[in-house]
Every structure is written in structure tokens, then in C-alpha cells.
Design brief:
With about 375 residues, the protein is of the alpha/beta class. Helices cover about 40% and strands about 15% of the residues. The chain contains 12 helices and 11 strands. The strands form 2 sheets. Strands 1, 2, 5, 6, 7, 8, 9, 10 and 11 form a 9-stranded mixed β-sheet that branches. Strands 3-4 form a two-stranded antiparallel sheet. The radius of gyration is 22 Å and the shape is globular.
Length: about 375
């Protein structure tokens, strides 16, 4: 007999939604660690960009190896610091991160991307489409092939993985899904191919860019295809939709990125609730019809409208301010990555302790969004601004 998980006593289907955000994705890794330790195994992970990489590392390994593989990736891409971030002043931490990030821009990230030193792209020259970028991500392809077991990922009955990318030619969002076709390192790499830094990736003759260009939070993919029965969805947000008025050029650039890549989940949720309400009303009206006027086709059409279940969304927002650095997503400083991982773990533990989804909700409730309770601000590397 399967042991009942006290955090999921009704055995709800678990979905993990991971958006893009470069080096900020270490926060997602910390969130996953907390879920892993509490045996909250996702049935389905939807990821974009760095979220697609983390998702592949999780879905593409047996449960016993998942956390180890996620950590191996972040250890590999972490850029060593010249100082112990925990022992120096805030000003020295900020200076260290600035030089660390500059070095990343100049030399790339081991196992992830490297600069195209002899390309004419930066000079405005014409290049082949697959090389139209400042950096080469072939190292990422090798890293994924090493750390992700794609045979396991694509095997029938495994954890479902969906990664999103944008078709360069049509501008349409593509959902690459392990349930409808075999995924490869190139599918994951395409999801994180943010131009002009990274090159598009060609799949089946078409070029693809980062899915975040279309929608950086792939919650829409989940809402469009919810399984039957109640669902518990952990949604990790790396960018803040709200923020102070910027005063400097760097703050303007930072705010621009936040607004561009922040979650549009509220809009998607509102649309879903409206649709859910209309579906319920249709079922109620249908139930009032005389039995003689009902047909088998009517029943089929009602079923096709979707499930009348409750979706619990646990929103986990990254709260690091990163000194309002526009290049915070390129800050692969080891100290910053460790802080983000730890913060993701702490936030997820707070969510699991609160476990708001265990409280009673009315049967007709479409969506419940569970926010983290506020905590006092903390001073930490990469979080001060």
C-alpha cells in the first residue's frame, strides 16, 4: 500500500512551472530541493529558457539522482569569486559581482556558452542563421547530454516535460512535449536561445528562439491542458512585475527587463476563471433541460469543454534585488548562485509549512493562488540594492 504524503493526502496531480531568468534560475533549484525532500514529485514540468534546463535535469533522471544532477549543473556554471562573499562588506560584494559578471560577458560560462571570437556578427556582417549570435551554446548541448538521461526522459510512463520555444520564421510559440515526441538536448537549448546573445536552434528544419520572447511564464500551457481532477501547481517567478520608479540608467534597464519577462499569470488566471465559470453555468443550464431533449452528443460536447476541478497555484517569487543590476541574469557568481539556491529552498519550505492547499475550498472554486506570507528583509549577497 502506497504511503500517504501528508502534504498531498488526496494524491493531487503535481505540476511545476519554471520561467526563464538565466542565472536567477538557481532559485528554482532551491525550490525543487524542498519539493524533493518532501517527496512531492512533479507529474508534469513546464519550463522556458533556464526553466527548461532545470526541468530537463529533473525529468530526465531517476528520482534518486535528480537533485544531484541539478546541483552538478549549477556547480559547473558557477563562476568562482575572488573573495568570500560571506565575510566582506556589501560594497565589496557588489564590486566582486560587477567584475565577475564582466568576466562572464567577456569569456562566457563553462559548460554553457562561449563567445564567438572570430565572428562578423558583432560587426554587422552577414552570417549563417544558426550562428547569428554573440555566443555559441554548443557547450550546453554537451552538458545536457551528460547530465540528462534522454532515454529515461522519453520513456513511456515517465514524468511529462514540456519546453517552450518561438519559431523564428512564424513567430508562433511551440510546445515541445515528451508525450507527443522524443525530446533532445536541442529542444532544451532552443527554449533558452535568447537573441542576440544566443543563436537560434534548428529543429526539423525550423529555427527556434527562447520561448520567453513570447511568454516567459509557461502557466498558459498548463491552463490550456489541465488534467482531470484537482491539481497542485508550484509556479516559480524570477522577475518582479512591480517595482519602484527607476532613477538611473542601470535601474531603467533593470526595470525594463523585469517588466518584459515578468509573469503574466494574473491575466491567464483571470481568463481561466472566466472560462471555468461559463463552463459551470453551461452544465447547470444543461442539467435543467428535460431528459428527452438531451442527446449523447450534448454529453460529449460538455465533456470536451474541460474539467470542473480546482487548481491550486503556489506562487514562489524570487525576491532578490541584486542591487538593481540590469545584468543580474548574467551574474553567475558562485556566492550569488548559492544565495539564490538557499533563498529558493527557504521560500519553498515556508510554502510547504503553510500548505494552504490543504484547507477546504468550495467544490466550484476554479483557482486558488497561495502567496508566501511576508518575512523581514534579509541582507545577503546579491539581495541588497
Amino acid at each position: 500500500m502506497k504511503k500517504i504524503n501528508p502534504l498531498n493526502p488526496d494524491n493531487l496531480r503535481i505540476v511545476l512551472v519554471l520561467q526563464g531568468g538565466g542565472a536567477l534560475g538557481a532559485y528554482q533549484a532551491g525550490v525543487y530541493q524542498a519539493l524533493h525532500e518532501h517527496d512531492l514529485v512533479p507529474d508534469w514540468i513546464v519550463g522556458t529558457s533556464i526553466g527548461a534546463i532545470n526541468a530537463a535535469l529533473i525529468a530526465g533522471n531517476e528520482q534518486a539522482n535528480r537533485l544531484h544532477k541539478v546541483k552538478a549543473f549549477w556547480d559547473r556554471v558557477a563562476h568562482p569569486d575572488n573573495v568570500d562573499m560571506s565575510l566582506v562588506s556589501d560594497q565589496l560584494r557588489r564590486s566582486n559581482i560587477w567584475f565577475n559578471t564582466l568576466d562572464t560577458v567577456m569569456r562566457g560560462v563553462r559548460g554553457f556558452f562561449s563567445p564567438r571570437l572570430f565572428s562578423g556578427f558583432a560587426l554587422g556582417m552577414q552570417v549563417v542563421p544558426d550562428e547569428a549570435s554573440f555566443y555559441d551554446t554548443s557547450e550546453l548541448k554537451s552538458t545536457l547530454a551528460e547530465l540528462v538521461d534522454f532515454d529515461y526522459l522519453n520513456a513511456e510512463g515517465g514524468m511529462r516535460l514540456t519546453v517552450n520555444a518561438v519559431n523564428v520564421r512564424t513567430g508562433e510559440l511551440a510546445h515541445f512535449d515528451s508525450q507527443s515526441g522524443a525530446l533532445t538536448p536541442d529542444h532544451v537549448r532552443a527554449s533558452g536561445a535568447l537573441p542576440p546573445a544566443f543563436p537560434p536552434v534548428r529543429i526539423d528544419g525550423e529555427l527556434y528562439w527562447d520561448g520567453g520572447l513570447y511568454s516567459n511564464t509557461p502557466l498558459e500551457s498548463v491552463l490550456n491542458e489541465l488534467p482531470s481532477g484537482d491539481t497542485l501547481c508550484f509556479m516559480v517567478d524570477l522577475w518582479s512585475a512591480e517595482g519602484p520608479e527607476p532613477l538611473t540608467m542601470d535601474e531603467v534597464s533593470t526595470r525594463q527587463k523585469d517588466v518584459t519577462f515578468a509573469s503574466r499569470s494574473k491575466r491567464h488566471i483571470d481568463d481561466y476563471v472566466q472560462t471555468h465559470t461559463l463552463q459551470n453555468k453551461l452544465r447547470q443550464l444543461y442539467g435543467r433541460l428535460p431528459k428527452g431533449s438531451r442527446t449523447a452528443q450534448d454529453e460529449t460536447d460538455l465533456l470536451a469543454l474541460g474539467c470542473d476541478a480546482t487548481l491550486h497555484i503556489v506562487r514562489l517569487p524570487y525576491a532578490g534585488r541584486d542591487w538593481h543590476m540590469a545584468a543580474k541574469d548574467v551574474n553567475f557568481s558562485k556566492g550569488s548562485i548559492e544565495w539564490r539556491w538557499d533563498q529558493g529552498y527557504r521560500d519553498a519550505m515556508r510554502a510547504l509549512t503553510h500548505a494552504g492547499w490543504l484547507a477546504y475550498v468550495a467544490e466550484e472554486t476554479a483557482v486558488v493562488v497561495h502567496e508566501l506570507p511576508p518575512v523581514p528583509e534579509q541582507t545577503a549577497p546579491g539581495s541588497v540594492g
